[in-house]
Design goal:
Length: about 170
């Protein structure tokens, strides 16, 4: 059974993140794989988001992760594109290749194919990075179809931004 995430839920998460970032005068950037730019889309749906959303990287292929974000080929070869280390490198690279104060990354297996016993469909790794702070990572295994997995990933990524900002306030 998947958690049903509505368009209203996505919009609410985007507005909340925007408010927190605006209060700090901070900029956010995203590095997305399995969500294909959905975080950037939902954030830029908010009027005035250019005040707090700096840029988004859609790095669906391994080569894009390497070229755009500086993810080491050896990390992907040894740990896979869907791994904690890749998520960390994506978040770090997004921060380094932007003017943002905080970044988020998402890499996962949205399905319906591509899963394995060790990395099932629905597995998503997240990372959040801020200058001079430890990179925060989480792994989730979401249920539902491709759309449901991706929606849950978008909301989780945005909630993680709020958590990082609250913890490092």
């Amino acid at each position: 059974m998947s958690t049903v995430i509505t368009d209203a839920d996505l919009q609410q998460s985007a507005h909340q993140v925007g408010q927190v970032l605006r209060q700090r005068s901070w900029m956010l950037c995203s590095a997305e794989s399995c969500t294909g730019g959905w975080v950037a889309k939902i954030l830029t749906d908010v009027a005035g988001s250019s005040a707090w959303f700096e840029r988004g990287f859609v790095t669906y292929s391994n080569l894009a992760k390497q070229e755009m974000l500086g993810v080491e080929a050896t990390v992907i070869e040894h740990h896979g594109a869907v791994s904690e280390l890749t998520a960390r490198e994506m978040a770090r690279g997004a921060l380094q290749h932007s003017h943002a104060n905080i970044s988020l990354s998402i890499t996962g297996i949205a399905g319906p194919d591509g899963g394995s016993e060790s990395k099932p469909v629905g597995l998503v790794w997240f990372a959040w990075a801020m200058q001079d702070e430890e990179i925060r990572c989480e792994q989730h295994i979401f249920t539902g179809d491709r759309n449901a997995v991706r929606r849950q990933a978008v909301v989780t990524a945005l909630q993680g931004v709020e958590t990082c900002l609250a913890e490092n306030g």
